[in-house]
Amino acid sequence: RRGNRRQAGGRGGVKGRGRGKKPASDDDDDEDDEEEDEAPRGRRGANRKKLAKKRGGNDDEDESEDEPPKRKRGGAANKKKGGKAQDKETKGKKGDGKGKGKGKGKDDDKDKKKKKKKGDSSSDSNSNSSEEEESMSEGEMARLMEEVEEKKKLIANIRNKPWRMQRRLKLLKEAQEFVDKFEGALGKGKGRKWYAYKVMMTKKWIKFQRDFENFRTACIPWERKIKEVESHFGSSVASYFIFLRWMYGMNLVLFGFTFGLVVIPEVLMGLPYGSIPRKTVPRAEQDTAQDYSVLMDFNGYCKYSVLFYGYYNDQRTVGVLKFRLPLSYLMVGIGTFGYSLMLVIRTMAKNADVGGGDGEDSDFTFAWKMFTSWDYLIGNAETADNKYASITTSFKESIVDEQENQKDENIHLRRFLRVLANFLITCSLGGSGYLIYFVVKRSQEFATRDDLSWYEKNEMEIVMSLLGLVCPPLFETIAELEDYHPRIALKWQLGRIFALFLGNLYTFLFALFDEVNTKLEEEQSIKNASIWAMKEYYANYSRLMNDSEATPPPMDPADVIRGPCWETAVGIEFVKLTVSDIQVSYLTILIGDFARAVIVRFLNYCWCWDLEAGFPSYGEFDISGNVLGLVFNQGMIWMGAFYAPGLVGINVLRLLSSMYYQCWAVMATNVPHERVFKASKSNNFYMGLLLLVLFLSLLPVVYTIMTLPPSFDCGPFSGKDKMFDIIMETIDLDLPAFMGTLFSYAANPGLIIPAVLLMVLAIYYLNSVSEAYQNSNMELKKKMKMARDEEKNRRNNADTTNQVMKDLEDLLPNRSLIPPAPPEPGQNYILMIALTFKA
Amino acid sequence: MGNKQTTFTEEQLEAYQDCTFFTRKEILRLHARYRELAPHLVPLDYTNNPDIKVPMTLIVTMPELKENPFRERIVETFSEDGQGNLSFSDFIDMFSALCEASPRELKTIYAFKIYDFNRDNFICKEDLEKTLNKLTKGELTPEEVTLVCDKAIEEADLDGDNKLSFADFENMISKAPDFLRYRHLFCYVFIF
């Protein structure tokens, strides 16, 4: 019996549950649920109420199951509809007597039916339904369809309902049965099979979607690892790993492009090693070409391999597929930048979308702290202790803020300190900038001299690494003055070290361009020498053979005089830098974190002071340093990938190993920050830095592609004046003629300048639109706040706002007769006054 | 599931997937976790829905809950008998509500119930004090506690009854900025 009751209630669950049950109940689900829980306990005995509840619960369900036949008898469709509408109204108004009465009448009818039905088996309901199918009018069908849709919606949303699992399972089963039973009946009018097929396909589709979703979540790598880190170190450290993962994804795509479209075609279809000079190690280097030290410097066989620009041939097409390798090379080079730009900007936009409002809105400081400050991800005792401490301190801070209500002197002092800190940091940044400039100048002087001491040779590197070593801690110390929230402090720190590192980048590029320019100068003479040597060789050959007719065998490719091939040199420079960067960062972790942790941990037993709590202690995870390392590394990749296609592969390996290595290192050797702080909502600050670096690294590459002549004897563009000539060539030779003219029109300055203008205007327009939106957003926020305050005031201080009423009341005679004011005064004043007058 | 003994029928798994935010793998994993808590109590075979409950004292030892100041309240809230004994359905229900995928509305409802210590459907001052003491391990002085509680109520209470109804709570929570993204109301890492 009970089961049946539940069932009945269950079927009506979508809407009927809460509403029908108890007219006075509030609309929100929570209360409904609460009642639901109480129901069996409290109201079991009250039979009448139970009956009412049952009716309420049945309301919907009966409509769906029992009514069709009844309505069939009734006939006219619109009348039913009217009845239904009324029913709904009843539910909506909850307490409407008339509607209720009608509903009751109906319910009685239903109950009778129900009883009758109870006796029968389920086959009865089957036959019942088939009977229905025979003569179902259109209105009924529509209604049934609606019902089925509703059930389906319930099935889809059941997991969002705050119900007990048992109840959910029951309801789900009911709903599924219902849908199964009636779904087939619906499509009778227009081909049942088709409908059944459609239903089946929908089911399959849903199943597929679910499987796909399962698969997709399983595909996100390192989710668990990152969560683990997050649970120990808070979201700020985790944000670095999320950034690293994002970076890995992007580099994987770049790797796919580069290897799929450039490296692999060259390996498979290009000429093999040793066939032409550019693919052969020169005679002079052959002895040492396999030495470990040479290979570690990326010379020898490494230099003449598919990893570097110089190896690629300038054949227009390779292989049977007529793959246009040089064109593909250029396109991939440009595409790398295009893709990265697009991805970074898209991610930024998406993150900004998620961001929404800022946390500055301090309407609910304490309430939020109370209910949302505990980080539910924490699963580690140490982190939990830190969290307790930080919550306590943050509460204390807020309390102090509240008590002091922002004293002015503090603000002035803080402002002064902040200005001072910024001044100091600007000074040190300027100083280091000048130092770098000075050193670069000196190194140029040194370049012309030979008698250099070891220090003078390595001056630049030493100064740079010293700066990198000293400045970040210095900045951090100065930043203490500012006393920012650690999240904001992190941003400042990132920005400042970024500015410092730009100096690094500048010196590196400066040295590189110097090298390129000298190589370019060399090249002209070597080119002549090479041609001359070739001629000499042929002349010698014909002189020795005494036969000017015979074609000489081609010169051994190892003996041909080569140009310096500046592109490969640049590529090697970048690869070397990346590799040394990897080594340095891994060693730093090994020594700075791991060795330190080991020492602190084990020497602590036999030391004069507490190493763990005292001076060396364990290292904290350096978020700013790691993020910037990642960003600048990516800049190197972007700059170098054009000259060394293999660099992308190296980088993918680096990021992959770094993920595991750093995850391990952070878990094993670091301790959480003293103030575990929430990361900002998005990684957009990191992304912004990345975008800046991308732009900066785009400049030199585009400059070299557009202005410098490619080497005459190596790389896919050899023999061309400029690298981009390959595009012109393709347009001329491979595309139909009208395309060529089209492109020449498009390249016309008369067209480009207006296009640029248009773009600028569009940017201006969009910018102002977004600003306007922002303004209106702020305005709305302000309005909302005002409305809230007003409402609060009205409700909170009903006494004060209704002062006039109060005065009126005071003036009334016979005040002692007035009953004590009910808890909700606002609405009842008039009533009360009326009552008083009556009295 | 190969030659292993079946824990759930296909139908049960589908039903659980419909009712929770978990994939079938996670459901099976959750069952394993549940079983780990009390191996002698919980059978491997769940195809006939045995009526078994694991007491709260065992549940709160899970690493996901161990450090949580509200662990007892959470378990109590999700247990059907209100005493903190969880059947497997309650157990999976709890983790479903706590997991990352569950929507904010649902989490808000459960959060409200959890913070409502005395189950009167309002978060009143006592509840707030309890919450605060749990959060700070009682490190604040009584005056500070009173101040914080008063301020919190003053901020969030819209209808002036000096306690927070669900509407107040929802309104307050819905305005919390990083509520969802950083899941500071609810969510657990599954250290599977």
Automatic annotation (TrEMBL), chain A:
Q: Work out whether the entry's keyword set contains Cell membrane.
A: no
Query: What's its membrane topology?
Result: Multi-pass membrane protein
**Pfam families the UniProt entry points to:** TMC
Q: Name one GO biological process term.
A: vestibular reflex
Concerning InterPro entries, the annotation shows:
TMC (IPR038900), TMC_dom (IPR012496)
Record's compositionally biased regions (Acidic residues) = 26-38
Coiled coil residues, start to end = 770-797
Q: Ranges of Basic residues compositional bias?
A: 42-55, 70-83
Domain TMC span(s) in chain numbering: 565-680
Q: Per the record, GO CC terms?
A: plasma membrane
Membrane spanning residue stretches:
252-273, 327-345, 419-440, 460-481, 493-513, 636-656, 685-706, 742-766
Cellular compartments annotated: Membrane
One GO MF annotation is: mechanosensitive monoatomic ion channel activity
- Biased composition, class Basic and acidic residues, residue ranges: 84-111
According to the UniProt record, where is the region Disordered? 1-140
List keywords of the entry alphabetically.
Coiled coil, Membrane, Transmembrane, Transmembrane helix
Q: Which family does it belong to?
A: Belongs to the TMC family.
Q: What is this protein called?
A: Transmembrane channel-like protein
UniProtKB/TrEMBL annotation, chain B:
Q: Which UniProt keywords apply?
A: Calcium, Cell membrane, Cell projection, Cytoplasm, Magnesium, Membrane, Metal-binding, Repeat
GO molecular function terms listed in the Swiss-Prot or TrEMBL record: calcium ion binding; magnesium ion binding
Stored Gene3D superfamilies: EF-hand
**Which Pfam families does this UniProt record tie to the protein?**
EF-hand_7
Q: Which residues form the EF-hand domain?
A: 103-138, 144-179
Q: Which SMART domains match?
A: EFh (SM00054)
Q: Which GO terms describe its cellular component?
A: cytoplasm; photoreceptor inner segment; photoreceptor outer segment; sarcolemma; stereocilium
Q: Which GO terms describe its biological process?
A: calcium ion homeostasis
Q: What is its main location?
A: membrane
Which compartment or compartments is the protein found in? Cell membrane, Sarcolemma; Cell projection, Cilium, Photoreceptor outer segment; Cell projection, Stereocilium; Cytoplasm
Q: What is this protein called?
A: Calcium and integrin-binding family member 2
What organism is the protein native to? Astatotilapia calliptera (Eastern happy)
Q: What is the lineage of its organism?
A: Eukaryota, Metazoa, Chordata, Craniata, Vertebrata
Which gene carries the instructions for this protein?
CIB2
